[in-house]
Amino acid sequence: MQITIYHYLAVSTILFVLGIYALISRKNAILILMGIELILNACNINLIAFSKYGGLGIDGQVIAIFVIILAVAEAAIGLAIIINIYNNFSTVNVDEVNSLKE
Amino acid sequence: MMEFILYKLPVIVLIIPLVSFLILIFFGKRLPRRGDWLANILLFTALGFSILILISYLMHGEKVSVTFDWINLGEGQPKITAGFVIDSLSAIMLVVVNIISALVHLYSVKYMEGDPKYGKYFAYLGLFTFSMLGIVLTNSLLLMYVFWELVGLSSYLLIGFWYERRAPQEAAKKAFIVNRIGDVGFLTGIMIVFLFIGDFSFSGIFNGVAQGKLAGGWLTAAGILIFCGAVGKSAQFPLHVWLSDAMEGPTPVSALIHAATMVAAGVYLVARVFVMLSADALTVIAYIGAITAFISATIAITQNDIKRVLAYSTVSQLGYMIMALGVGAYSYAVFHLVTHAFFKACLFLGSGSVIVGMHHIQDISQMGGLKKKMPVTYWTFLISTLSISGIPFTSGFLSKDSILSATLAFAQINGGINYIIPVIAFLVAGLTAFYMFRLVIKTFHGEPKLKENYEHCKESPIQMTLPLIILSILSIFIFFSFNPISADSGWILKVLKSPESLNVGMQGKIYHILPLEEFSEYLHHAHYPAMVLSIIMAGLGILIAFLFFYWNKVNTEKLKVKYKFFYKFSLNKWYFDEIYHLTAVSLTMGLSALSNLIDKYIIDGIVNGAAYLVKNISSLGGWFDKYVVDGLVNFVAAFIKFFGLVFRKFQTGKIQTYIALLIFSIIILYIIFRAF
Q1: How far apart are the C-alpha atoms of B626 and B622, rounded to whole Å?
Q2: Distance CA B236, CA B242 (A)
Q3: C-beta of residue B311 within 8 angstroms of C-beta of residue B254
Q4: Per-residue pLDDT reduced to its tens digit, B179-199
Q5: Cβ of B508: how many Cβ atoms within 10 Å?
Q6: Residues paired with A18 in a beta bridge
Q7: What is the pLDDT of residues B356-379, one digit of tens each?
Q8: Which residues in chain B (601-620) have CB-CB distances under 8 A to chain A?
């Protein structure tokens, strides 16, 4: 079976939808952060696929590298925030962290 | 010096009483003795100045007129001027007014002693003197009208001086309203004159008449209407009713205003405009004067109030003056005005002295025998009575005799119906002598009726008797003419030359205006018959008075019963008050009641209806505002609130919800854009 750009896109779409689903449905902050990672990775797959099959060339791979680096930085900061939230609220459930409400 | 006296001093004389008024009305209460000394000093100063003016005028001999523009209506428009004139008429009147006013001031010091409004009284006297001098001095008809009204005002204030009592209030109102009726005519006359001639100053008006700008019927109308003012102020028939009621004021006021000066203002006015009066206007004036003289003389016969007798005799004498002007005897009328001012003021002040002596009893039937108790009052009163009755060697004889001869001459010239006038004049001369001696005999002779009052009666103090003495001396012939039986050679008639009428030769309905020379020819012939007749009439009157009241030869009570109708008619003043009450007053009252009804039901109804309408329209508007406008606003608010509530549900603050919505929306948008 010939692997075409549609396969890549299908995988990345599945990943993206799963990421979104995790983002929307999970209450645990860590799981939400994981959902964001999934979305970013779906995006990376797309970039790589366009790099190979589309007209993006090497640029797509460069941007993918950048995205990975950003994802790392984002994960580091996000986890740091989550640890602080846990320290303050003794929970990582985002619904319960609502002291700014009202 | 002469320049100053004739051109400046009249203004100072005019201002002095005003100064007295202003000082007394504002600071009277703070001055010692309420400032009566100040008023007296000021008025006697004015008297001195006015005598100085008269003497200077006599030496100078020329009319002095000072005029300045008062109101300038712009180019080509008539100018309204103001100013004063010193001629024989005004110079003599100036002295007369000031003499009487100063003496009344002096007299009032004692008469009004202890009155709670003592200071105010002198202030009012000052105001009156000011306005009277204004009338005398002014050379413009408009300005004269202004002072005319001021005189009316001060007369009102002084008649109603004791306004705590009912009668003076009523009398003051009556005087004011009756005067107003005449003044309407006066004002209308002024308007007619101004309409045709466009000038208010006397010289301008006379020039206009001489040029024929105002002639014919309009000239007669203007003359009669201006005379209406005199009818009001000088208490001529049919507006004479106020003067006897005006006696409710203090007696010195009656002497000053309602005998000597203010009521003479009407005569003065007619004298001022004398030259422009047409033949028909003069006819009306002559007959009104004669009717007045007769009516009031018949009323005076039966009155019992000492002041009312004098009041009616005043009306009668004023009628004489007006009649004299009507028949063309200008100088005699003014001469009688002057002599009358002195003896009538003396009579009134004498009656004031009697009233004080009798402890405020004014009924002459309650008096009697006062001769012994009040000798000074008696003798001065007697001299004035002789004067008013027209007994030789008095001033009254000179002036009255002149007037009588003028009426006789008038009748001879015009003939026919005009003989009524001398007949009335001689009859009134007899009546005057009769009622004046009735007054004297009842008051000063016979047995005292009220023993108690009589016992306490004593002569008045010097402040009151001195004016009496001065005035009675001024009632003697020597001051006016050295010839006791004819005034024609006296200084006053030489100064007071009759001016030639502007309408010489005019033929009225029953009146022919003759040139002065021809007229004096007739006068000359009429003089001696008139003199003899007038002495006979006066003697007859006095004789009858003595027969009736002194020797009691005739029972007056029987006469009263026998001629009950005439007696009642005279006692009730010809029922003039009743007639006026039935006609004019009740008509006015009815009209007022009608207008009141109209006002109450129709005007008020309209107003209330309008108010009701506005109220209902506003409540409709209120309802509209409340339910429609507010409803709309509230609806918008509720609408927004409702959607706010709906949309609030989306604003959960939960990022996951937002993201879910975001994605949901994107999908929807995608589908939409894909589909179309």
Answers
A1: 6
A2: 10
A3: yes
A4: 888 899 999 999 999 888 888
A5: 17
A6: none
A7: 888 777 888 778 777 888 888 888
A8: none
Distance CA B20, CA B28 (A): 10
- Sequence-distant (6+) residues with CB within 8 A of B214 are B192, B193, B196, B197, B208, B222, B276
Q: Which tokens in the block code for residue B666?
A: 């994107």
Say if domain A5-89 classifies as CATH 1.10.287.3510. Answer: yes
Report the C-alpha gap between A85 and A98 in whole angstroms: 11
Rounded Cα distance, B378 and B395, in Å = 19
Most confident of B91-100, B505-514, B580-589: B91-100
What the block records as the tokens of B14 is 């005019």
Q: With an 8 Å Cβ cutoff, are B663 and A95 in contact?
A: no
- What is the distance of C-alpha A74 from the center of its chain? 10
* C-alpha–C-alpha distance, residues B276 and B325, integer Å: 12
Tell me whether B659 touches chain A (CB under 8 Å). yes
Which among A100, A85, A80 is positioned nearest to A27, based on CA atoms? A85
Using CB atoms, pick whichever of A20, A25, A95 lies closest to residue B663.
A20
Q: Residue B319: name the closest of B425, B217, B406 by CA.
A: B425
Amino acid at B601: Y
Sign of the four-CA dihedral B204, B210, B213, B215: positive
Number of H helices, E strands in chain A: 3, 0
The whole-angstrom separation of Cα B604 and Cα B311 is 46
Task: Please give, rounded to a whole number of angstroms, the shortest distance from the CA of B665 to a CA of chain A.
Answer: 14
Query: A35 to chain B: nearest residue by CA?
Result: B656
**pLDDT tens profile B653-672:** 777 788 888 888 999 999 99
Answer yes or no: are the C-beta atoms of B293 and B424 closer than 8 Å: yes
Reference B286, options B37, B588, B592, B510; nearest CA is B510
- Which residues on chain A are in Cβ contact (under 8 Å) with B655? 94
- Show Cβ contacts of residue B30 under 8 Å, excluding neighbours closer than 6 positions: none
Please list the residues that pair with B65 across neighbouring strands. B85
DSSP state string for B325-391:
HHTT-HHHHHHHHHHHHHHHHHHHHHHHHHHHHTTS--BGGG---HHHH-HHHHHHHHHHHHHHHT-
What is the nearest CA distance from B648 to chain A, expressed in angstroms? Answer: 13
- Cα(B446)–Cα(B621) distance, integer angstroms: 89
Using a CB-CB distance cutoff of 8 angstroms, which residues of chain B are in contact with residue A24? Answer: 656, 659-660, 663
- CB distance B246 to B311 below 8 Å: yes
Q: Where are the domains of chain A?
A: 5-89
Q: Show Cβ contacts of residue A21 under 8 Å, excluding neighbours closer than 6 positions.
A: A35
Q: Is B416 left (phi over 0), alpha (psi -120 to 50) or beta?
A: left
Query: Please, are residues B442 and B367 in contact by the beta-carbon 8 Å criterion?
Result: yes
Among residues B425, B453, B405, B217, the alpha carbon closest in space to that of B317 is found at B425
What are the tens digits of pLDDT across the range B101-114?
999 988 888 888 88
**DSSP strands (E only) in B521-586:** none
Distance (Å, whole) CA B375 – CA B379? 6
Mean pLDDT score of chain B:
86
C-alpha distances out from residue B625 to B99, B421, B618, B628, Å: 79, 84, 10, 6
C-alpha count within 13 angstroms, C-beta hemisphere, residue B444: 25
Q: CA B659, CA B267: separation in Å to the nearest integer?
A: 115
Which residue from B268, B325, B331 is spatially nearest to B494, judged by alpha carbons?
A: B331
Q: Closest Cα partner for B270 from B252, B282, B279?
A: B282
Cα separations in angstroms, B443 against B196, B378, B468, B572: 54, 9, 17, 22
Q: What letter represents residue B555's amino acid? A: N
Q: Which letter does DSSP use for residue B480 in this model?
A: T
Residue of B nearest to A102 (CA): B653
